[in-house]
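pinging the channel bc i need a second pair of eyes. not urgent but kinda urgent?? the chain im working w is below, pasted from the shared doc
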Amino acid sequence: MSLSISKVVEIKWTALMIDDESLRDLIWETLKAAAAEEGVTLSSNPYRLFTHELMLITKLTAINKGIKKLNWIDHLVNLTELNLSQNQIASLDGVKFPDSLTTLDLNNNQIGNLEGVKFPNSLTELNLKHNQIGSLDGIKFPDSLTTLDLNNNQIANLDGMKFPHSLTTLHLNNNHITSLEGLDFTGFDNLTALGLNNNQIVSLERVKFPHSLTTLHLFSNQITSLEGLDFTGLHSLTALGLNNNQIRSLEGVKFPHSLTTLHLFSNQITSLKEVEFPHNLQSLDLLSNQIKNLEGIKFPDNLQNLDLLSNQITSLEGVKFPDNLQNLDLSNNQIDTIAGFEKAFSKLNKFFRICMNSNPITGTVEYLRVTAKIEADNPHINFTPR
């Protein structure tokens, strides 16, 4: 006779207890949805969230829930996307993020320091905008990171900062950065978009921007000079924003041939003489400068949109606009004569719209019907096809 003995094994399940009712309910609802999708029957309830079942959650969005602490986050071991924006998180000290996390959104919190924070190596997108971060000294971002948003913080210095070479997008707008001197982006072969708007940058001297950039925004700074700057190495750059600075001259500046959009409005530019605009430029924005004369200026052949509103231009004599121009704004200048108009528009071959409001000019301008159709905004000047 043989005796069979069965051993009873007691399984102890670990439960996560969350005091915050709104967060607890949110995690519970997220867990239920994940379980339903996988066809799993849960043993958890809102008050006892079993950690082995929390593995079902891969995405969590907890916006504006008053969250202050993240001591629960390491239990969501399979989490890939986490949105904790608009909460009250002041510190990330000691937080252990899941190793699986790829997207982390912490915008609009109260984070002041990143020192010692360990972001997971899997992270590709990190949003930290609208916090109170004052320094990046000693911060180690993961090598896998492709998008980093640090807009609207209190960062004043980038000296010695080592961003990961994997970055494709870097936003540093609306900070307190005063200098880029010596900043070297050599080796950043993946970076395509760099935003440095609304800082206090005075000079671009000795800055080495990456050749891979397609978009570079430097507007609303305190840049006074572009003298000697050579952008031609940025052979992929299509959009350059330098508006709302204190730039007086473009003399000697070398723009890349790839550039299609150039914003230079709200500066102190007085002349365009000797300026070499790139051949592929399609949109040029020069409103609110101090330009007085356009005579002899060579605009690129591919230019379609030209904004010269609110300058000090008095005449179009000696001006030749390019064939492909479609929109021209000369409003709020000091043009008081139609002399030179016919020649200025003689090469147009497409529908063309010109805005000339707020100029002391009256008269009739004839143009060849076969070349273009001109539509004008100014009750005191009449464009008539010949």
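so Confidence is low (pLDDT under 50) at residues 1-11. and Residues 93 and 117 are 6 Å apart (CA to CA). — does that match what u expected or am i reading it wrong
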